[in-house]
């Protein structure tokens, strides 16, 4: 029997806003009482998590005085130290307060844009004080309901100016941050700017220091738009931009459900974990998910345990997949290579062009070749269902 006990090397993290979620939704009042950040840290230590992440106002109220802020942070740091919990990632809440009703860095109001920079710098100071090395940006209000109201060309420039400014602030203070931009296709604005991994990669390439900026893709965000999250993660990884990842679960085409990891899309999550483990992803495995609104805090603990257990089960299944002789034989058959076209791997050359043009291909034979994907997919299903 495999051991599915979470360990520090798994780097499992949760946000203060996840296990501390009080069960409010747009149609209903809270179903759980508020618990403090210290209580959340103690809960995460109890269930075996490695770290906790936070928005600035998850910990420090937006209207806290300087002395109140320092007392809150000191108590939180002590709780983390006492419970062996680290803070690997921090971010800024630029979406809850009415000041950000029309965006933060992309707002039409220059005072809002300036306030967003100020608030983010203070939040970066907080994250650095807590030891965070990844800084996430989710532009929850960076969008529009009417394109009559905003020029998207101006929006792109405003966002670029903000990222360039904050990169320099991090460097000036030797914070050593990696910035991770978090794309989302829709909700809570009608149209969110930079909605996908691909659009964020294109934007990052235009920054003054693109090496400092990467991505924080999230399962639910890609699934909301019916996209394949694994493909987005692979693209981010290939670009060297997978700085952080948000794990949860989500049915295609629904509102942002943020379900427990592994609770819905079993095959998709298996292939995701297999990819992360096979390529050697070494960052946090962050669960940006919420327990059902029907749960009390005892059940919230089961939710947190379930996220980590599901990941470890998928990891175990990935190892079985890689060791399964029949599955691997099929993969070898599908990827059979005689080496006849290895010359193309060296890229373009006059010799390659001449050789390629002179090659006679058996088009009919190529088209008739069997690719046993049905068999391979069924074997994958059988493995996941525990009947192999």
Low-confidence stretches: none
Named at the architecture level, the CATH assignment of the largest domain is: Alpha-Beta Barrel
Assess the beta-strand content as a share of residues: 5-15%
Total helix count? 15
Give helix and strand order, one letter per element, not per position: EHHEHHEHEEHEEHEHHEHEHHHHH
Main attributes?
15 helices; globular; alpha/beta; 2 domains; 388 residues; 8-stranded parallel sheet; two-stranded antiparallel ribbon; TIM Barrel
Task: Describe the model.
By secondary structure, the chain is of the alpha/beta class. The chain folds into two domains: 8-323, TIM Barrel (Alpha-Beta Barrel); 325-384. The protein contains 15 helices and ten strands. The protein has helices spanning 16-19, 37-47, 56-59, 66-83, 110-130, 152-172, 197-204, 219-224, 229-238, 266-279, 297-323, 325-334, 350-357, 363-368, 373-384, and strands at residues 12-15, 51-55, 89-91, 134-138, 143-144, 178-182, 191-192, 213-215, 246-247, 285-287. The strands form two sheets. Strands 8-6-4-3-2-1-10-9 form an eight-stranded parallel beta sheet. It is globular and about 75 Å long. 37% of the residues are buried. The model has no long low-confidence stretch (mean pLDDT 97).
């Amino acid at each position: 029997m495999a051991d599915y006990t979470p360990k520090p090397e798994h780097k499992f993290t949760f946000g203060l806003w996840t296990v501390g979620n009080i069960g409010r939704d747009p149609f209903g009042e809270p179903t759980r009482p508020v618990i403090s950040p210290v209580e959340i840290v103690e809960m995460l230590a109890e269930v075996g998590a490695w770290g906790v992440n936070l928005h600035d106002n998850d910990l420090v109220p937006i209207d806290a005085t300087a002395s109140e802020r320092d007392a809150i942070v000191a108590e939180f740091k002590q709780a983390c130290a006492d419970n062996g919990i680290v803070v690997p990632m921090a971010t800024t809440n630029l979406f809850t307060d009415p000041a950000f009703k029309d965006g933060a860095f992309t707002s039409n109001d220059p005072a809002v844009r300036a306030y967003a920079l100020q608030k983010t710098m203070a939040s970066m100071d907080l994250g650095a004080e807590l030891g965070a090395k990844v800084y996430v940006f989710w532009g929850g209000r960076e969008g529009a309901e009417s394109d009559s109201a905003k020029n998207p060309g101006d929006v792109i420039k405003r966002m670029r100016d903000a990222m360039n400014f904050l990169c320099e602030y991090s460097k000036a203070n030797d914070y050593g941050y990696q910035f991770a931009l978090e794309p989302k296709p829709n909700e809570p604005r009608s149209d969110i700017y930079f909605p996908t991994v691909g659009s964020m990669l294109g934007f990052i390439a235009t920054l003054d220091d693109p090496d400092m900026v990467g991505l924080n893709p999230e399962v639910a965000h890609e699934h909301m738009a019916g996209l394949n999250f694994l493909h987005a993660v692979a693209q981010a990884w290939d670009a060297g931009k997978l700085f952080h990842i948000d794990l949860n679960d989500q049915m295609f085409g629904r509102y942002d459900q943020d379900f427990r990891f592994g609770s819905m899309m079993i095959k998709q999550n298996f292939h995701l974990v297999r990819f992360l483990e096979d390529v050697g992803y070494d960052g946090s495995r962050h669960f940006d998910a919420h327990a059902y609104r029907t749960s009390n805090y005892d059940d919230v603990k089961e939710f947190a345990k379930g996220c980590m257990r599901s990941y470890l089960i998928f990891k175990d299944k990935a190892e079985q997949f890689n060791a399964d002789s029949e599955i691997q034989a099929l993969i070898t058959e599908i990827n059979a290579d005689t080496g006849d076209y290895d010359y193309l791997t060296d890229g373009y050359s006059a010799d390659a062009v001449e050789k390629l043009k002179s090659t006679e291909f058996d088009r009919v034979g190529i088209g008739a070749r069997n690719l046993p994907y049905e068999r391979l997919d069924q074997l994958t299903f059988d493995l996941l269902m525990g009947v192999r």
